[in-house]
Write a structure and sequence with these properties.
The protein is mostly helical. The chain contains 8 helices and no strands. The protein has helices at 5-13, 19-47, 58-87, 96-152, 159-170, 181-197, 204-218, 222-288.
Length: 300
């Protein structure tokens, strides 16, 4: 078969990209991705329970999310790539290797466009939901730690409270019984709060003064009052340390979850790109295998 130079010139000036087929495949992939993501959210929320020891575990939810994301990429990207390959313009007088490359490129471009479209449609709402959950969890942990610190004393919250501690020290005397209960509670809170916020041991003069206050208001001996101070201060300090440890563990867990989620999302997207490219080559071969039927029209 001899091909004229005009035919070769015409085929060489035509673009090798069928954007209509690419956008058609991308639209189909994006729509199916959105539907499957919303379905996944529904299934995930139905499996999660707000009560402890009920519903799916965090680990199980993470694994299920990864599997569903990979499934979504395989199905949606495969469909988009197949449509892009099946609807592209047939390339005549083209070597098989070039046709294979162009089909692969069409599938990849369809996946890329669909990924960008899906990101604009989904990522905004997903990030809002995730950030809301993270902020709520951080608020709970922060409230717990803040509550423990406030129970120990408000002196841990600012430099002004530290100054209040020193102001109280200026007016200490041997007549604490003359001070009202509210004032005493404020002094004790500032002493304990400052000591806990500095992660230090209770100073000897503070301990003696607190024992004096307690002894005059509870009829305990000085030794019993000091023993009570040691126990209560130890409990308060342990509660604050436990709250800090829980907050640190929650932050570490959140960081690990974010890292694993990013990693497996990357893997799922690569899987989607592969299936889109592969499906496009299959759709292209089906497109080239189409036999056109010619009909004869008889004129009477």
């Amino acid at each position: 078969m001899i091909t004229s130079s005009s035919t070769l010139q015409e085929s060489s000036t035509l673009s090798g990209v069928s954007w209509g087929a690419i956008f058609a495949g991308a639209a189909a992939a994006a729509a199916l991705s959105l539907i499957l993501v919303l379905l996944g959210f529904g299934l995930g929320f139905s499996a999660v329970s707000p009560w402890a020891d009920s519903g799916i575990s965090a680990k199980g939810l993470g694994i299920s999310t990864i599997i569903w994301l990979a499934f979504t990429q395989i199905v949606a990207s495969g469909l988009g790539g197949y449509i892009a390959g099946r609807l592209r313009v047939k390339w005549a007088n083209m070597h098989g290797d070039e046709v294979y490359f162009r089909d692969t490129a069409h599938g990849f471009l369809a996946w890329a466009v669909a990924t960008l479209i899906t990101a604009m449609l989904v990522v905004g709402s997903v990030s809002s939901a995730v950030s809301g959950g993270v902020k709520a969890g951080a608020s709970v942990v922060s409230s717990a730690a803040g509550g423990m610190t406030q129970a120990a004393g408000s002196a841990a919250n600012g430099s002004a409270d530290h100054l209040d501690y020193y102001v109280d020290s200026l007016f200490r005397d041997d007549r604490p019984a003359a001070v009202s209960d509210d004032a005493v509670h404020g002094v004790v809170a500032r002493i304990l709060g400052r000591t806990i916020s500095n992660n230090g041991e209770l100073a000897a003069e503070d301990r003696a003064y607190l024992a004096q206050l307690i002894s005059q208001r509870t009829n305990l001996s000085q030794a019993d009052a000091e023993a009570r101070i040691d126990k209560v201060y130890g409990d308060a300090r342990k509660a604050v340390e436990d709250a800090k440890l829980k907050a640190k563990q929650a932050a570490d867990t959140a960081a690990k979850v974010a890292a694993y989620t990013s990693l497996w999302t990357f893997v799922a997207l690569l899987i989607g790109a592969f299936f889109a490219s592969f499906a496009a080559t299959f759709g292209g071969r089906r497109r080239d295998a189409v036999v056109y039927v010619e009909t004869e029209h008889f004129v009477r």
